[in-house]
Amino acid sequence: MSKSIANNIRNVRAHLPACVTLVCVSKFQSEEAIREAYEAGERHFGESRVQELQRKVPVLPDDIRWHFIGHLQTNKVRDLLRLRPCLIESVDSERLLHTINDEAGKMDIVQDVLLEVHVAREESKTGFTPEELSAISHQLSALVHVRVCGLMCMATNTEDEEEIRRCFSQAAHIAHDLARQSIFSQAVPILSMGMSDDYPLAIGCGSTSVRIGSAIFGEREHHPSPLTDHQCQKIRAVFFDQDGVLFNSMPFHAQSWELAMNEHGLPFTAEQTYRNEGRTGASVIAEAYRLVHGTDVPEGLCEQVYAAKSCHFNRLTGGRLPELIPGIQDVLHWLHAQGVQCWVVTGSGQRSLLDNLENTFPGIFTGFITAFDVTRGKPDPEPYLKAWERSGFRKDECMVVENAPLGVRSGKAAGLFVAAVNTGPLPDSDLAAEGADRIFPDMQALLQWLKH
User: What is the dihedral of CA 193, 198, 204, 208, to 10 degrees?
Assistant: First the structure.
């Protein structure tokens, strides 16, 4: 057994009250390292990816109590439940909660969960707001295949101890209020908060479970610089834009945007669609209105214009999916075969496309960041930062595939390597001006670069 891991565990344990559960965060750690922690007496381990758990569960001791602590996509719930985790700590939406209940019902099991509460002052953090928790509290008793055992929270990523303490204190206060409503399945609810850098503060605020990784296993090697042209073999996650990268949908978007805007007295051309590609529809409409009227867009107008745009889009496509970008299937299947995560990161809210991504590319995508997941769309870095954070990899292990100038700007602002595939009418110089690291004429050229 490694003396360092065993010693690290003893050092951590020396600062933990007996009533606090230690969850060893073993994501990205080897089976050997987990065995060493196990031999030192630990039984609770935390993982953030279903795929990684699928590899580890069969080869590690049966009495390990696995905690799922990462962002969970609804399309991964069934696979996770088959692994029988002792606790899913990161239930961050009502939709996910109901999906877990439905899938657990099909398996005739009851799954223990924690509700993730958003108390951090960071938009990239996920979870229920305190108001949302209060609103759904009366629904929980009807979910017979989940047991809500408590709350989980993550503090703001800062060195300001007072801000961290504020986050933990607020989460503890929310847990106390909800416990008085008897919504938890146990008299003393679990309050999972605190990691390697801040767990003493969390315990002081009432944490009953801490998630500790680097203080036990050591810091993971860190390379802050993004992927270079000669390091593409290190890629572990690729973030794909949707329109113009997966689907040849931009000509339909361009025409439908022009029609819908003009119908509502907002001059707009097809070329403007390409130059605004990647932004959320609401931001495009709001800016077009300000340019004409000099004021904020009236309430409800964004919805009207976008509904008209969607109708035109569906009419122009005949209700069918646009053709795939030539060569994209080869790129996706090759990356998937190499074990690389593939994500969709799009400013689109076009339901006809989003709802069919899984059917078009079954089993390919690890997750999705869409217009419904962000408050600030491209060119803000938020969409790609959110995908990077959820992937769990270093930035030099990730890359972006874009076709639009604003998408390139978003990826670069997130500190990622950006490969631009020019599938539209704009010149390469527009992509280069936004900082694209490489520009390819088509997907086959991209694939050859990836392979070599």
Answer: 30
Instruction: Decide if pLDDT at 24 tops 80.
Output: yes
Q: Sort 85 into a burial class: Cβ within 10 Å, 0-12 / 13-18 / 19+.
A: buried
Cβ atoms 344, 332 nearer than 8 A: no
Residue with tokens 């039984």: 43
Band (pLDDT 50/70/90 cuts) for residue 281 is confident
**pLDDT reading at 2 higher than 60:** no
Token pair belonging to 319: 């209700």
Looking at residue 62, its amino acid is D
Cα separation, 179 vs 63, whole angstroms: 30
Taking a C-beta distance cutoff of 8 angstroms, is the pair 325, 244 a contact? yes
**DSSP string computed for 215-281:** HHH-PPP---SPPPTT-GGG--EEEE-SBTTTB--HHHHHHHHHHHHHHTT----HHHHHHHTTS-H
**Count of H helices and E strands in the chain?**
20, 14
**244-253 per-position pLDDT tens digit:** 899 888 888 8
Q: What is the structure's pLDDT at 430? A: 82
Tell me whether the omega of the peptide bond preceding residue 383 falls within 30 degrees of 0, making it cis: no
Q: Alpha helices of 31-93 — where are they, by DSSP H?
A: 31-39, 50-56, 77-82
Closest CA to 110 of 138, 84, 83, 137: 84
pLDDT of residue 238: 97
Q: Which ranges constitute the DSSP H helices of 301-340? A: 301-316, 328-337
Beta bridge partners of 341: 237
C-beta separation of 183 from 146 below 8 A: no
Tell me what pLDDT residue 220 has.
54
Q: Is the pLDDT of residue 348 over 80?
A: no
148: amino acid identity, one letter: V
Length of the chain in residues, anyone? 452
Q: Give the residues across from 111 on adjacent strands.
A: 146
Would you say residue 187 has pLDDT above 60? yes
The whole-number pLDDT of residue 138 equals: 84
- Please name each of the domains of the chain with its CATH number: 3-217 (3.20.20.10), 232-248+323-451 (3.40.50.1000), 250-316 (1.10.150.240)
- Burial (CB count <10 Å: 0-12, 13-18, 19+), residue 421: buried
